[in-house]
UniProtKB/TrEMBL annotation:
Xref: Pfam families: ATP-synt_C
Family membership noted in the UniProt record: Belongs to the ATPase C chain family.
The keyword tRNA-binding appears for this protein: no
Classification via CDD domains: ATP-synt_Fo_c
Keyword field: ATP synthesis, Cell membrane, CF(0), Hydrogen ion transport, Ion transport, Lipid-binding, Membrane, Signal, Transmembrane, Transmembrane helix, Transport
Stated name of the protein: ATP synthase subunit c
Domain of life: Bacteria
Biological role: F(1)F(0) ATP synthase produces ATP from ADP in the presence of a proton or sodium gradient. F-type ATPases consist of two structural domains, F(1) containing the extramembraneous catalytic core and F(0) containing the membrane proton channel, linked together by a central stalk and a peripheral stalk. During catalysis, ATP synthesis in the catalytic domain of F(1) is coupled via a rotary mechanism of the central stalk subunits to proton translocation. Key component of the F(0) channel; it plays a direct role in translocation across the membrane. A homomeric c-ring of between 10-14 subunits forms the central stalk rotor element with the F(1) delta and epsilon subunits.
Species per Swiss-Prot/TrEMBL record: Candidatus Magnetominusculus xianensis
Annotated signal peptide: 1-20
Domain V-ATPase proteolipid subunit C-like, residue spans: 43-104
The gene coding this protein: atpE
Site positions for Reversibly protonated during proton transport: 93
Length: 114
């Protein structure tokens, strides 16, 4: 199972990076509109924000489940656990916001947005 996931991810990376390699090999110094650079930037931005959202979602789910377990074991400490959970979730969410801003920066740099 794990080996097939790694193979599928490697093939997806190869498929996504092939157009950029062709443009680089052709020596197109202009990197104009016909080269697919904008399409590759858009795909990269979408993949980046997707991976960031997936990772933060998993992290938030694990954090919430552990907080619920902690409150179930010691209901008296629920106030401290809740405060720590909210701070932790805010830090996790800030990573996804940072990835969103980077993806937005890539799109703005390619003049695809604004």
């Amino acid at each position: 199972m794990r080996k097939s996931v790694v193979v599928m991810l490697a093939l997806a990376l190869l498929i996504v990076s092939a157009p950029a390699a062709v443009v680089y090999a052709s020596g197109d110094a202009d990197m104009g509109k016909d080269s697919g650079t904008k399409a590759m930037a858009a795909i990269g931005a979408l993949i980046g924000i997707g991976i960031a959202a997936l990772g933060t979602g998993i992290g938030q789910g694990i954090g919430l489940s552990k907080a619920c377990e902690g409150v179930a074991r010691n209901p008296g400490a629920s106030g401290k656990i809740t405060t720590t959970l909210i701070v932790g979730l805010a830090m996790i969410e800030s990573l996804c916001i940072y990835a969103f801003l980077l993806s937005l920066g890539v799109l703005i740099n390619q003049k695809m947005f604004f």
